[in-house]
């Protein structure tokens, strides 16, 4: 018997780790769907803003695995008793906590930037020496060895130690803040694995960026620090009153905003990102605190990044250097012309189409990846495939980085016509800053011969330097390459062919990398891709109308439209508007092109993206047509209701079967008639909490419960899903003696739970549910009897479409029935 129980405990432990029910059902790995659909299919991969994503049966089963979370704690007797023990109406500790979170996120951002820069510089410094001597094979060997080892390490860390740390973490973070419980995304192990994997992935040279993981790490820090305890360290901060769903979610959203601020050096952009994209619920007061958190995070990151480069102290600690904290600083401003809006609209359209194409191909890569992984039966073989995938991409990138530049000739620095030539030194370019046609000193020489710099007079310096355009784009760290594309008055620094040659393969490889097992983001690739085609549009304007260094036509600058292109592609993929506009301003310091960038982003935004993650999410948009339908049309009818006094066996059966909603309406007998009327809600977690306490809470059939001990709110909130608890619940469900044992639920009922009449507007219910951060919404009839329940899964777009379609079909059948009868 003990051996059997031991095996059962191991099984329960494994299921709990996977985030599944501790009582049965298939694992998520077993349920992963391999979907065979047409290559182009509306609602699956393509669709406008009016289309909802259409899920397959397997995907719907996966969605049903997720549970939801309440935004507000339950308004029960035990909660009010707990609230009396903690300070109320004080905010100083919340402000302090926001400052601590901002400090921690800022330090993490600093360390991430420094590690990535250190690795990237070390990787190419050696390679450039071999390339300069013409030894491409040795350079390729070095780059391939270091890069593949880093990519292999990045993938192995997530696959072998903590798979929830893979990817950017943004879909999971947004899903959590939208109210969905996602296992293992906020653990300490997730933090360290995601950080290390991201540093290795970005440092290796994969077409990825650190911004997505940085935002996710910010949210993780917000939760971990605010709760003040962990499995490993126990309680380390005395802020117990923050251990409730409302504060927890507020600190997570603030931490995510601080992550944006640390990643981009954009405190206002971080605040707007948290408001626009991350948080489903917002308040002015929370906005102030989030802004303070973002400001603190940016301050710490910029302070240390200004003094260190690759962990080497550069002096002047405390002096904020724009070149260090403004990621893509634009030093030469260009006046905007009304004519600039026309190419901006064109760039926006291109950004929208390419953004949709990027997402479409990403979906195809994701399904192809899933198909290949499922070809293998062994778990270790599946893990090996996921680990090797980023190394394959990195091998392609290494070969491309070393050999592709050698296919292009050296480009001499641009010369102005007034500079005389010298037959010994060849064409010479004057380095004087008064000349507007220029080439940046930071371009990559690669294997081009080193030029000669001579001082031919007391004031003028000349050189005959040359550089490789393709090497400048693909052998530098992504942020440095974007710097070169954004540069102003460098009209001919890049030609059409190098830009197009880099754009194609980089687009495909970035799209492929997006779903791999490494912890990474897409911001840097999105900016780079957009800057490439934006620069092409700008260069075409210069080719058509010539170089105008000043005056009415000075707005035609390739670097300016590279910035517009970067914003358009970022907007086309992410659909951000306000936060993206402010972020682009903060990372470039170019206010002149604000209106042009806004135009491009708004145009690009109107192309729909389909979410890749199977996470229950309630979108902010709802159709006005839903006013014609009631909540009764889509609700789940006849929910499982509980009495105020329910037998232990019935409660245990509910938990074991686990086929109902994670919340149960509690009903009581009406004083005026025999009907059972709605009283409030109790959640599945609270029922688990009751069973985790001693049996003293069980009462007999004739006991009124007045002398029965009451479980505390702390016990109900911090349920420990132990193996013994699962075994005890199964025993309660199977033994008949517990039919005569009861639990008094009255102290634990949430009596402030929302309920609406069955005739309530569907659209207004949707708005109420999302705005208030609800998890369950009871539906009652005119006598206050509970006739249905609504959860976020009922309000997902595909479910609403299915229910409305079924109602319309039923309505059509009812209208046709009398006609058919009359014909006979």
UniProtKB/TrEMBL annotation:
Record-linked Gene3D superfamilies: CBS-domain, Clc chloride channel
Cell location: Membrane
InterPro entries referenced in this protein's UniProt entry, alphabetically: CBS_dom, CBS_dom_sf, Cl-channel/antiporter, Cl-channel_core, ClC
UniProt key word Ion transport: yes
PANTHER family named in the record: CHLORIDE CHANNEL PROTEIN (PTHR11689:SF89), CHLORIDE CHANNEL PROTEIN CLC FAMILY MEMBER (PTHR11689)
Sequence similarity: Belongs to the chloride channel (TC 2.A.49) family.
Protein name: Chloride channel protein
Organism placement in taxonomy: Eukaryota, Metazoa, Placozoa, Uniplacotomia, Trichoplacea
């Amino acid at each position: 018997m003990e051996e059997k129980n031991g095996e059962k405990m191991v099984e329960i432990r494994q299921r709990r780790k996977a985030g599944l029910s501790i009582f049965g059902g298939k694992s998520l790995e077993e349920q992963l769907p391999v979907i065979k659909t047409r290559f182009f299919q509306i609602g699956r991969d393509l669709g406008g803003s009016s289309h909802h994503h259409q899920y397959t049966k397997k995907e719907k089963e996966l969605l049903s695995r997720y549970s939801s979370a309440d935004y507000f704690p339950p308004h029960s007797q035990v909660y009010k008793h707990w609230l009396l023990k903690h300070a109320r109406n004080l905010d100083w500790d919340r402000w302090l906590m926001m400052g601590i979170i901002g400090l921690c996120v800022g330090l993490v951002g600093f360390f991430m930037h420094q590690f990535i820069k250190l690795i990237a510089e070390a990787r190419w410094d050696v390679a450039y020496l071999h390339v300069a001597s013409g030894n491409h094979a040795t350079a390729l060997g070095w780059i391939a060895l270091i890069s593949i080892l880093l990519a292999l390490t990045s993938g192995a860390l997530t696959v072998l130690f903590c798979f929830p740390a893979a990817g950017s973490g943004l879909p999971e973070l947004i899903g959590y803040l939208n109210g969905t419980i996602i296992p293992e995304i906020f653990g300490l192990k997730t933090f360290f694995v995601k950080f290390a994997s991201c540093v290795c992935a970005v440092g290796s040279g994969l077409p990825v960026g650190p911004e997505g993981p940085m935002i996710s790490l910010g949210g993780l820090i917000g939760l971990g620090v605010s709760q003040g305890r962990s499995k490993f360290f126990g309680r380390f901060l005395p802020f117990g009153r923050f251990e409730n769903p409302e504060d927890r979610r507020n600190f997570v959203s603030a931490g995510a905003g601080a992550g944006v601020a640390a990643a981009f050096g954009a405190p206002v952009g971080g605040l707007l990102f948290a408001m626009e994209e991350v948080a489903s619920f917002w308040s002015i007061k929370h906005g102030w605190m989030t802004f303070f958190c973002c400001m603190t995070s940016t301050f710490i990151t910029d302070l240390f990044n200004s003094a260190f480069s690759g962990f080497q102290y550069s002096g002047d600690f405390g002096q904020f250097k724009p070149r260090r904290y403004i990621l893509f600083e634009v030093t030469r401003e260009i006046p905007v012309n009304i004519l600039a809006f026309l190419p901006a609209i064109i760039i926006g359209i291109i950004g929208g189409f390419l953004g949709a194409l990027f997402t479409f191909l990403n979906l195809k890569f994701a399904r192809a990846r899933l198909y290949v992984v499922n070809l293998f039966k062994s778990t270790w073989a599946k893990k090996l495939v996921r680990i090797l995938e980023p190394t394959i991409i990195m091998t392609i990138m290494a070969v491309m980085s070393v050999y592709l530049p050698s296919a292009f000739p050296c480009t001499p620095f641009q010369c102005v016509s007034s500079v005389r030539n010298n037959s010994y030194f060849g064409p010479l370019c004057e380095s004087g800053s008064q000349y507007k046609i220029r080439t940046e000193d930071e371009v990559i020489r690669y294997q081009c011969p080193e030029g000669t710099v001579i001082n031919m007079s007391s004031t003028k310096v000349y050189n005959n330097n040359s550089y490789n355009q393709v090497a400048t784009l693909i052998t530098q760290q992504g942020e440095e390459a974007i710097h070169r594309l954004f540069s102003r008055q460098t009209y001919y620094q890049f030609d059409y062919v190098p830009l197009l040659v880099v754009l194609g393969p980089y687009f495909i490889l970035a799209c492929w990398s997006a779903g791999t097992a490494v912890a990474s983001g897409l911001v840097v690739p999105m900016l780079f891709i957009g800057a490439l085609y934006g620069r092409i549009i700008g260069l075409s304007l210069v080719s058509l109308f010539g170089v105008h260094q000043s005056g009415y036509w000075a707005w035609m600058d390739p670097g300016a439209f590279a910035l517009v292109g970067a914003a358009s592609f970022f907007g086309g993929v992410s659909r951000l508007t306000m936060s993206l506009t402010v972020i682009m301003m903060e990372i470039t310091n170019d206010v002149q092109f604000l209106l042009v960038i806004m135009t491009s982003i708004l145009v690009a935004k109107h192309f729909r993206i389909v979410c890749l993650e199977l996470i229950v999410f309630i979108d902010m948009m709802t159709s006005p047509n839903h006013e014609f339908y009631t909540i009764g049309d889509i609700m789940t009818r006849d929910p499982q209701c509980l009495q105020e006094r329910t037998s232990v066996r019935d409660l245990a059966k509910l938990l074991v079967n686990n086929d109902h909603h994670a919340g149960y309406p509690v009903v009581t007998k009406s004083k005026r008639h025999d009907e059972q009327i709605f009283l409030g809600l109790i959640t599945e977690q609270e029922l688990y909490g009751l069973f985790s306490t001693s049996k003293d809470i069980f009462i007999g059939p004739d006991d009124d419960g007045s002398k029965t001990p009451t479980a505390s709110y702390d016990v109900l909130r911090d349920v420990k899903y132990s193996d013994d608890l699962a075994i005890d619940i199964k025993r309660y469900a199977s033994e008949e003696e517990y039919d005569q044992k009861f639990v008094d639920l009255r102290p634990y009922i949430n009596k402030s739970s929302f309920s609406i009449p069955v005739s309530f507007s569907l659209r207004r219910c949707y708005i109420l549910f999302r705005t208030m951060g609800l998890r369950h919404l009871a539906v009652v009839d005119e006598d206050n009897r509970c006739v249905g329940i609504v959860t976020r899964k009922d309000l997902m777009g595909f479910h609403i479409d299915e229910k409305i379609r079924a109602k319309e079909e039923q309505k059509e059948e009812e209208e046709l029935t009398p006609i058919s009868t009359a014909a006979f």
